[in-house]
Amino acid sequence: MSPDTDERIITLELLAAEQERTIHDLSAEISKAWKTIDELNRRVEAMALRLTGIEEVTAPEIPVTKPPHW
User: Dihedrals φ, ψ of 67, to 5°?
Assistant: First the structure.
């Protein structure tokens, strides 16, 4: 092979290696973000359940009455 061809192949191999590393790094970040999102979703659901329980205990009883036009 000619020196130009060898140089082009080396350049392409370096580029492919850099892209593979970038993809790996991005995949790791997405995985980390997904775990964080899952944890936050669990916490929000737990807080919503606690708030619902507090509302049920503290909310005044609202009588059901017909509007005057009935």
Answer: -65, 160
How far, in whole angstroms, is CA 26 from its chain's centroid? Answer: 14
Express each pLDDT in 19-70 by its tens digit: 999 999 999 999 999 999 999 999 999 999 999 999 888 877 777 787 777 6
Structure pTM?
Answer: 0.62
Q: How far apart are CA 40 and CA 43, in angstroms?
A: 5
DSSP readout, 26-65? HHHHHHHHHHHHHHHHHHHHHHHHHHHHHHHHHSPPPP--
